[in-house]
Amino acid sequence: MLWTDKYRPQSFEEVVGSKNTVSQIKNWINKWNNNEAQKPLLLTGSAGIGKTTLALIIAKEIGEFVELNASDKRSYDIIMETVGESSSTQSLYGKSHKLIIIDEIDGISGNDDRGGTRAINKIMANTKQPIIMMANDFYSKRLATIKTKCLVIKMPKIRSPTITVALRKIAKNENIEVENDALKELSKRSNGDLRSAINTFQAMVSYSNSLTMEDLDDLEYKDNTSNIFDSVIAVLKSKNVKHVKEALFSINEDPTLVMEYIAENIPREYTNKNEIKKAYEMISEADFFFGKARQTREYTYWRYASEFMGSGVALSKKETYKKFSKIQSPMAFNLMARSRGKRKLRDEIAEKISKKCHVSKQIAISYFPLMEIIFKNDLWAWEFSDFIGLDDSEIKHFRTKKIPKKLVKELEYKKAIALQNKYKNSLSEGNNEDRNNTKIVDGKINSKNTDNIHFDDKKKGNKSKKSKDKLKKTENKKETKKTESKSQKSLFDF
Questions:
Q1: Is 18-154 a domain of CATH 3.40.50.720?
Q2: Is 291 annotated as a binding residue?
């Protein structure tokens, strides 16, 4: 039998760790027993600190319970069929309430768990029964809609001396000889995970019935990789330089990203103006060394940057603040996410300008202030947008008002006539080329098409020419009238 099951606490008195957590849970149970409906209980914290144990003790206190494990499929339909029905019906055994337990809700993901979070939110809104849920990662995105509707209890890691006491008690009951230093070292290496420490202890003494320091030589430390939020909390909440360094060293993230998180949350944790000023001075120094590393490709500068943004910020405060501060992601990232569409539009406009004007995108973007001035004039706005090839959404980047439809129609008509005249001129130039190919040799016409020339055809040609000339004259008169009526000058008339 596993010792984690054999020595699992059976009552609140046997639970090791935070007494404050136990008192909060007792108060929650008492209110339910007095028929005072409470918010669902959400226990969060790292693995092996007793979340499931507490849930089972609560179940004993209440009586009947329904459990949904992490190993079960937790799709919308399955949750609604099992937990959903239980949450809205009374106990079969005459008890006033039955407890609903949902383990590792931050692990609901994938096709098997499709719609699981939606089902949990629906159950919480309509439940008549107490609900307790457990999660490892307090900052998981899957908990965003759930946390606001729950009584959240953040359970801390179990301290090494507490783990040592628990292991010594097991050793005494199992008649195992242990060295005190070995037991302390094993507790440290478990990194606050009591379950891991007990399992490791059982595995190491299963053959020898003893534990020495030599037995720990091949034992690695439990994976101490923390997330970015744990590291930020360590910097802002602690003044212990060793603890801060360990927290930053254990994280597997871009250090500049960690610096952004620390910088964002300094004023949320620190309240003294001088402490905030000093902390930001440390961030400034860290940013300087990160810049040095980028410029010189000498990444040893990261060491100095980490010292400033870690130990420097931690020691900027006189005393640690005993309050809860929610860690926020940097506002710069939120602003970038919001402005993603604007930046994309800016780049598309710059791309068009760079192609037409044969300049780089960066220089094209530098033209934007001048273009805002140009686009104040309706005629210039149309001419420029037509030349570059801007659509309505791109024109809006430089002016709020649309170009008047009447003006657009007139200018498009003018453009169409100009293109038509250009086309006619190109045709006439083509006829001149044919004339050039016709030569007079010894008073006779020498041409490839002389066999098909007739006098009548020439007459017809002359008539068609006269009609074309008349059309040209009338069109030119219309154009002159329109240009005279306009007071605005063209952008390209200089």
A1: no
A2: no
